């Protein structure tokens, strides 16, 4: 079922690439239409999975990735429709296509154990996924900032200068996405800590619950991610790390997110995976 959203995301990527190259109004509308169709189809798939198992599919790495792709698509569409700017679609869609490939090739829906049925678990995972979607947007905005900066620095105002917003606009968008992501990441980590304490009290024999500590790779990397974005928000600009350096920090932070999201989830089996 995940193959249909993947095909639509791929078609949307082709349309956004064509629009980025040609800047035609018709190609822009076609790109947005295809992305809306992909997001709606993804919504339908998640809805069907929710009906099948009785809860939103966020337990397990593969369902969480599918939900993350859906949230990122919706977040980008919101930015596009509120700013009427489609230039960043060509940078967002490759990430959506790459991640949606995982649930398309290995679909799975995991039933939640009793310990995962707490409302705090749902808030914890949902907050983290929304934070990760915001950080993905910040990363893409940062990449476009660097591309435009290099073109301006070279005094060759051409391809990117004609297609991207100004450096000031990109910088503000980057900061806004990071603030939203940091808030949701902080909420998700606090709620997760409270839930973990409750889970250890109610299910002391569950090995997955016992594994949750600072030594857990997923928790440790999440703390590192929080530290990187906290530094960017509260210290980087005070020491002159604005603009291009802030963009690089955004890319570094999201690289850490992806490390936590894919390799650790699938290959470090001792880490909690739900």
Summarize the structure.
The protein has 274 residues and is mostly helical.
Overall average residue pLDDT: 85
Please state the oligomeric state of the protein chains shown: single chain
Helix-and-strand structural type: mainly alpha
* Secondary-structure element pattern, one letter each: HHHHHHHHHH
Describe this structure in words.
This protein is mostly helical and 274 residues long. The longest helix has 36 residues. The chain is globular and about 65 Å long. The mean pLDDT is 85.
SSE order and pairing:
Blueprint: H1 3-22, H2 25-53, H3 61-83, H4 89-105, H5 119-153, H6 167-202, H7 207-210, H8 217-236, H9 244-261, H10 263-267
Helix pairs in contact: 1-2, 1-4, 2-3, 3-4, 3-5, 5-6, 5-9, 6-8, 8-9
Record keyword descriptors for this entry.
single chain; 274 residues; mainly alpha
């Amino acid at each position: 079922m995940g193959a249909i959203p993947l095909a639509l995301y791929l078609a949307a990527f082709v349309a956004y690439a064509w629009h980025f190259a040609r800047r035609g109004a018709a190609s822009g509308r076609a790109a947005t239409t295809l992305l809306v169709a992909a997001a709606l189809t993804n919504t339908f798939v998640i809805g069907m999975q929710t009906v099948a198992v009785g809860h939103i599919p966020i337990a397990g790495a593969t369902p969480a990735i599918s939900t993350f792709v859906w949230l990122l698509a919706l977040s980008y569409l919101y930015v596009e429709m509120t700013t009427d700017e489609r230039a960043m679609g060509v940078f967002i869609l490759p990430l959506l296509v790459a991640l949606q490939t995982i649930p398309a090739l290995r679909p799975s829906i995991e039933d939640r154990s009793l310990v995962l049925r707490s409302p705090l678990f749902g808030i914890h995972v949902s907050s983290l996924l929304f934070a990760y979607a915001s950080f993905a947007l910040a990363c893409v905005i940062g990449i476009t900032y660097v591309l435009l900066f290099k073109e301006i620095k070279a005094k060759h105002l051409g391809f990117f200068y004609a297609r991207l917003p100004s450096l000031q606009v990109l910088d503000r968008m980057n900061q806004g996405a990071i603030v939203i992501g940091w808030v949701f990441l902080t909420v998700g980590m606090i709620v997760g800590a409270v839930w973990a304490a409750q889970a250890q009290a109610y299910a002391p024999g569950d090995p997955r619950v016992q594994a949750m500590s600072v030594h857990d790779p997923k928790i440790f990397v999440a703390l590192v991610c929080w530290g990187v974005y906290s530094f960017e928000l509260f210290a980087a600009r005070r020491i002159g790390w604005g603009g291009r350096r802030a963009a690089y920090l955004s890319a570094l932070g999201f690289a850490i997110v992806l490390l936590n999201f894919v390799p650790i989830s699938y290959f470090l089996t001792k880490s909690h995976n739900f």
